[in-house]
Structures are given as structure tokens and as C-alpha cells.
Amino acid sequence: MSLRIVVCVKFVPDASGDRGFADDLTVDREGVDGLLSELDEYAVEQALQIAGGVEGCEVTVVTVGPGDAKDALRKALSMGADKAVHVEDEALHGSDVMGTSLVLARVVERAGFDLVIAGMASTDGTMGVLPAVLAERLGVPQVTLLSRVKVEGGVVSGRRDGDSASEEVEASLPAVVSVTDQSGEARYPSFKGIMAAKKKPVDSLDLRDLELDAAEVGLAGAWTAVDSAVKRPARTAGTVVKDEGEGGRQLAEYLATQKFI
Amino acid sequence: MAEVVVYVDHVGGAVRKPTLELLTLARRLGDPVAVALGEGAAETAGVLAEHGAVRVLTAQAPEFADYLVVPKVDALHAACQSLAQPPAAVLVPSSAEGKEIAARLAVRTGSGIITDAIDIEAGDLGPVATQAAFAASYTTKSRITHGIPVITVKANSAPVQPAPAPGTVETLTVTFTPAATGTRIVSRTPRQSTGRPELTEAAIVVSGGRGVNGAENFAVIEALADSLGAAVGASRAAVDAGWYPHTNQVGQTGKSVSPQLYIASGISGAIQHRAGMQTSKTIIAVNKDPEAPIFDLADYGIIGDLHTVLPQLTQEVHTRKN
Ligand SMILES: Cc1cc2nc3c(=O)[nH]c(=O)nc-3n(C[C@H](O)[C@H](O)[C@H](O)COP(=O)(O)OP(=O)(O)OC[C@H]3O[C@@H](n4cnc5c(N)ncnc54)[C@H](O)[C@@H]3O)c2cc1C
Predict the structure, then answer these.
(1) Which of A10, A45, A240, B186 yields a CA-CA distance of 20 to 30 A from A158?
(2) Where is each Electron transfer flavoprotein alpha/beta-subunit N-terminal domain found (chain A) (predicted)?
(3) Complex confidence, ipTM
């Protein structure tokens, strides 16, 4: 049996940096270094684990993003993915989830897939809806937000921990899966992996290659518009006291003055 | 007046608080039409009417409980199509499932989507949604420029207001798409109730982190929470260590909370934790490290050992309450 897995990953500004917005109110990608979204590492990990048990399985990582986004692909390749696709086009700048998902759906269809795996959300936009949107566009089952995932006999199954219940879910392939950060630690790239990644193929595509209209994507083609982005005033640090044996009682006094008790 | 579709989050007919908050926001945009699905759907009508629902559309089918997300998208889509004119907006609670339902509806109706709004106002060009970005370090205002404004809203984003309306119950006819039965829910284990308030809805949240140092020590956190009638939260470090369930995790990959009071004990204040609690009204920190970044956010902080400070606080709360 062969299995074609496509992993969708995002190149995001490092959360430990001072993230912000550019003049056109898109995410500033200049001021802060970018990296493979940590939540997508879990998707790469699960893809590699599933692939490990299947003869002739191929794992392709895909990203839509600027030139630097290749770094995210390299990281995934060094973890063990087989090949990569990078969609890069000036016209994609400022795409919203509808634009990005349109492009990803086209790439995934062109590549051919049995399983698409994504992270639970990006660490910059944090919407967490792209996998569901992709499933809707591709017309295949969505098996999302899994903390455990298994592929066997053409069926993907897993556990979805929801707000009010934990569910066991399953669907026939092809399907779109997303995995949470509870799905299992992602591996670190080995030295051998990093060296091997340098020789793995990265296919670069633009909108024309994908036969997509530039008007459907990017800032101008987005179906949402950001009118303003204002930095919140930093919370002003309040009173900090050292516990000298009365800390608990002092806290209670504070809660009382604030009418919490 | 234009109608606004509100997706009802309920458990067996008991409407969850965020839906009532949505009705408050919906009334700013038009006449709320609530959509309640599955077992107990009709029982939601009373409370929805009290809070402004002009009509309540209900649908019952085994598909809603047996298959993931898509049956609910089909129903919400049918609700939108049943209106005389397209709704002024579709509002959905920002649960993980709510966001997925909203997103698929947006694709189907050729609409833009905004998730995790913390406020919505009417605007000349349609609803304006406020969001918190980059771990709540920015506040943005956005609009949907194409199709129906589909917006998911976080809990605690608006007050619950009584606003009596007819709440006329109507049966919604839903024809399921072939995709509806794509993902089967094989089994469901309901989360056990702790008797404490829902984490995302609670007015007070008491959270513990790595500093709690052991599952059994979470009793200290729980005791304080119970004295205040609060929900219990945990950092990812505490969850990863197996000391507390993941359902209680606060932060980027856990729950996002915005209570009146958040008490962080033995939590350093990493950016991913802050992302889930930074918008709390009042923040209190107990940490033995004076350099812990959590103190930068705290309105009141105690530098000390949580194992002595918290029990003393709990004791004092009990004393003052009696
Ligand atoms: C993609 C991603 C997503 C993440 N999502 C989340 C998330 O959703 N939620 C989350 O919380 N984290 C998340 N994290 C992890 C986050 O980066 C931190 O590692 C985590 O929040 C640390 O938890 P902590 O503060 O409990 O532990 P630590 O950072 O180890 O801090 C423990 C604190 O306890 C104090 N302490 C120790 N003993 C005592 C004592 N006896 N009394 C008082 N104080 C004491 C210490 O001084 C220290 O400040 C995420 C990380 C990544 C990369």
C-alpha cells in the first residue's frame, strides 16, 4: 500500500520576539525572525510516525509564504519529510484564510493526496480554522483537533478532546486531519537529517503555475479588512510585596478592597 | 430590520452563557434569530426569548450527534437560506467546534470570516469586530468585505442582558449534504463535572503552574478556588507533567479566559500562557521568583511560596466570609 501525505505548514514570526503589524496592517515579517510554527511541528511529527509504518509512503510539506518561508520547509525536511512545495508570489501578500486555503487546496489537489495533516492553529493568526476550510474546499472528511491519530486500512481515526466531551472519531481516506500539541512531542532534526534535507527537492510554484487568479488572493482579494491595529498599553505592574509571613492575609485584604470577597 | 443568525451552544437544552452574550451583541446589529440543533433544541427557546431571540429555529436529527461538524454546517446554511434576505451577520461562539462550523459556512456562502472577536459594533460598512492579536498585545478592528459577515465571539465579550422578545419556535428543514456523514463519532465520553464553574465563563479563575509541584498539591489551588467560587486553571507545564487535566489548560493551546479576577500561582508568565489570560480584569500573582515576568502583568503580587501563601489566603477568605 502506498500513502501520500501532504503536511501544510506555516512560517510565522517568533512569538518570543516583539511581534506587530506593518504599515498596511498585515503581519510584520521584517522586524521579527520567522520560524516553522511550533504547532506545525506536531503535524510533521504525526505524518512521519504514520509514514514510518507504511511501505512506500511519501511525505510532502507545503507552505504558502514569502522567500524566507523556505526555512520552515527545510526544518520539516530535516525532521524527515521527503519533499517540499513552496508557493511564493508577490500577489499573495496579505492573503486571509480564504485566500491561503484556496492556494493550499489547489496545491494539495495537484500533488495528489490520501491524507492532509495540519497543525491545530498557526501561532500568529491563531484562527485554527484552516483545516476545516481545506476539507470543505477539497470535499473530503475533516478529522480535526486530534490528540491521538492512527491510520489503518484506509481509515483515519483519532481522539478529539472537545469542551464538553472527548470523542473517538473516524473517516475514510482521503481526509484532512489536524493534530494538537497533545499528540506527542515533535522530534528534533538529527545532524544526519539536517545534511540530508539540503539535498531534498523543494518545488517552487507561483500563482500562474497553479492557474490561480491573483485577484482572488492577497490583500486586495481578501474577504476581510483590518481597519486598525493599536498596541495595547502594557499592563502597568501594580503592587508587589514580599511575603514575610502575612502574604496570604495581605492578599485577602486586597481582594476585600476590590470587593472580590 | 435585518435579521442576525445566532448559533446556539447548548447541552441537552441548557443554553451556555456565551450564547446569551452573543444575543446582546446580535441586538446591536438587528433582530436575533437563534438556531438550536440536536437533542433538547426546543427547550432552549424560553431562555433565548428572554434574552432577545425574535425567532428560534430548531432541528433534530441523529446526524448532529453522530457525525462531526458538517451536519451543523448544513443546518446553519439552511437557516441562512430560509431568511427573506441574507442575514446582517452570523454569530457563533468561539469554541473549537464553533469556529470550524463558522469557517465552513463562510466557504459555502462565499463569505469572509473573523474569529475570536471580543466585541462587535454596528458600522456603516457592516459589523466591526474587535480582536486581540499577538497574545493580546494588540487590539484590532476588522470587517468582512465579502458575503455574509461570519464572526465567532469569545466568551465574556459582552454582558448577558434580559431583553424579552417573542422567541417563536419554528422547525428548520435541513437536507444533509453527502459530506455530512464523512466523519463518524464512534464514541463520546462526556467530561466529568467538577461542580466548579466553567473555566471560560467563570468570574474568578485560580491557576497553578509548575510551582505547584505535584498533582496532589493541586489541592491547595482547588481549596482557594472553592473558597472564592472560582474555576481552576493550569499552565501547560502543569498539564504536561500530568498534574491536572488538559481541559483546564489556560493559554494559546488551551482555554482563553477573561475573568474579573485571575490568580496565577507558581506560573512564570510565558507569552503562550499570557495569550490566554492577559485580558483578565484583575491579575494576581504568587511566585517565589521576584524576576518572574508574571509580575509585569499583576495588579497585586506576592513574592513568596505558594504552599504557605495560598492556604493562609484560603483561611482568611473563609474567615471573612463567615
Ligand atoms: C506552541 C506553544 C504553545 C504553548 N501553549 C501554552 C498554553 O496554552 N498554556 C501555557 O501555560 N503554556 C503554553 N506553552 C508553554 C509556555 O511556553 C511555558 O513553557 C509554560 O507556560 C510554563 O509553565 P509554568 O509557568 O507553570 O512553568 P515555569 O515557566 O517553569 O514557571 C514556574 C514558576 O513557578 C515558580 N515557582 C516554583 N516554585 C514555587 C513555589 N513554591 N511558590 C511560588 N512560585 C513557585 C517559579 O519561580 C516559576 O516562575 C506553549 C508553548 C509553545 C511553544
Answers:
(1) A10
(2) 24-214
(3) 0.96
List pLDDT tens digits, range B76-127: 999 999 999 999 999 999 999 999 999 999 999 999 999 999 999 999 999 9
- Spatial CA neighbour of B207 closest among B181, B170, B243, B171: B243
Candidates B129, B86, B95; CA nearest to B7 is B95
Length in residues, chain B? 322
Say how far apart CA A173 and CA B70 lie, in whole Å. Answer: 17
Q: Is residue A239 part of a domain?
A: no
Cβ–ligand 1 contact at B238 (below 6 Å): yes
Nearest neighbour of A248 by CB, restricted to B138, B144, B310:
B310
Percent of chain B residues past pLDDT 70, beyond the cut: 100
Residue A118: is it exposed, middle or buried by C-beta count within 10 angstroms (0-12/13-18/19+)? buried
Q: How many CB pairs under 8 A join A and B?
A: 259
Ligand 1 in reach of B212 Cβ (< 6 A): no
B292 Cα nearest atom in ligand 1: 49
Domains of chain B, with CATH numbers?
Answer: 3-181 (3.40.50.620), 199-321 (3.40.50.1220)
Containing structural domain, residue A151? 4-221
Detail the residues of B annotated as belonging to a binding site for FAD.
Answer: 210, 235-236, 249-253, 266-273, 287
A260 in any annotated domain: no
Q: What is the mean pLDDT of chain A?
A: 96
Global pTM? 0.96
A249 domain-assigned: no
Q: Give the pLDDT of residue B248.
A: 97
Which of the residues A19, A24, A136, A146 would you substitute to probe the B interface, choosing the one with the greatest number of B C-beta atoms within 10 Å?
A136
DSSP track, A119-184:
ESS-TTT----HHHHHHHHHTS-EEEEEEEEEEETTEEEEEEE-SSEEEEEEEESSEEEEE-TTS-
Pocket of ligand 1 contains residue B255 by CB under 6 Å: no
Q: Binding site, residues of B?
A: 210, 235-236, 249-253, 266-273, 287
> Does A234 reside within a domain?
no
Query: What are B174-186's pLDDT values in tens digits?
Result: 999 999 999 999 9
* Per-residue confidence (pLDDT) for residue A207, from 0 to 100: 98
Question: What total of structural domains would you count in chain A?
Answer: 1
A69's grid cell: 518561508
- Give the CATH number, domain containing residue A69: 3.40.50.620
Does ligand 1 come within 6 angstroms of the Cβ of B174? no
Pick from B140, B145, B272: CB nearest A228: B140
B102, B246, B272: residue with CB nearest A15? B272
Half-sphere exposure in the Cβ direction for B270 (13 Å, CA): 15
Cα(B119)–Cα(B129) distance, rounded to whole angstroms? Answer: 6
